[in-house]
Write a structure and sequence with these properties.
Blueprint lengths: L5 E7 L2 E7 L6 H7 L4 E4 L12 E5 L15 E6 L8 E8 L2 E6 L5 E5 L4 E5 L5 H18 L3 E10 L2 E6 L6 H12 L2 E4 L2 E6 L5 E4 L6 E3 H4 L5 H5 L18 E3 L2 H7 L8 E2 L1 E9 L6 E4 L4 H10 L1 E2 L21 H11 L4 E6 L10 H4 L1 H4 L2
Parallel strand pairs: 2-4, 4-9, 11-18, 18-21
Antiparallel strand pairs: 1-2, 1-3, 5-6, 6-7, 7-8, 8-9, 10-11, 10-12, 10-13, 10-20, 13-14, 14-17, 15-16, 19-21
Helix pairs in contact: 1-2, 7-8
Length: about 375
Amino acid sequence: MTTRPTALRLDFHGTPLDLEVAPGARVEDALAFLATHLTAEEAKPDETGREPVATLRVHAGDPGLLAPPAGTAAEDIHLRKSASEFFTVPARRAAVDGREYLECTKTGSRFVFDRASRVIDVALGAGGHMDLVELVRDLVLKHQENNGAAVLHATAAYRDGTVVLVTGAKGAGKSTVLLELVEHFGYEILSGDKTVVHELPDGSVLAAGWPDYPHLGYGTVAKYPGLREIAGIADDYVPAEGHAFSPVGKFAVDPLPFRDRFPSAPAGVRVPVAAILHPSIGPGEHTVVEPLTGGREEHAEVLRANVESAFDGANAGWHHYLDDDRAAHAERVTRITDVLAGVPAWTLTGPGDLTARNVPALIAGPAEAAL
């Protein structure tokens, strides 16, 4: 008797993916990672008539069974390339007969993309659950962008049905400020790296979080009891000069104990933005929080500079399953940043320590502001 695959539907705010998991295929770790922001339910006919972006068929057994035909030329690529070796995912890619074949060279995981049938075959190698996560995140973000969502390089702190966005370039201090709000002001983590913003029919906007793997600088890790141990940093570690507050010496932090240490927002929430912080943290005696200067258009330009895309960058084309249709929705993304430009905003400089004395009352909340 043959056991049928387990059929699941993953969904992120209107982006559906079907997952068919063969008996013996292990996807539990990948689903646990994604569960903070994607729902996973037994697959059944969608009452809205939505077709899945793709059906991911996860096979058990030897990933080599998904190899391209012998003699097919292949090229070296990256699913992801980072300053951190941990987050770098090298691969080999080949294309033949309308299909793309990809092998993750660290783990041996393999993907076969078939646009015509809307199917992606998956076989995970040892420890390859993050390869599946990377595939799901890439497909979902690209589909979201193709439907007009704006993806901001921003962390997001959730409390009482709204969020505070923290935007800025890599190393600006987004994670530090996020954890300060969570640790001292009763917030929960909605998003630790990217925030997806949607426009509603009435012109208002809502922010949704995104599943990511914490990647924290030493200056941030050292601030919070227990976080050094979660990050696996030895007691005698000393960062290179100038790197305690830089993006160079960052550490990958196991997300499961991290979630136990810092509370997360409820899965699947999508809420208004109450305030925006633009940090540029670094050494200093005091943290200074000041209202953002310049007009609304200048603020919109700052926000647009922090819009990012899964379609951009040297490794964005690691597969060609989805076309880039962003241009059809460019005006919507502009409208989203224009709306956000009207939200109260502040700059933040110095070491990033937040207290009731330097946090604006709108962000601190009435109880904390009264301290």
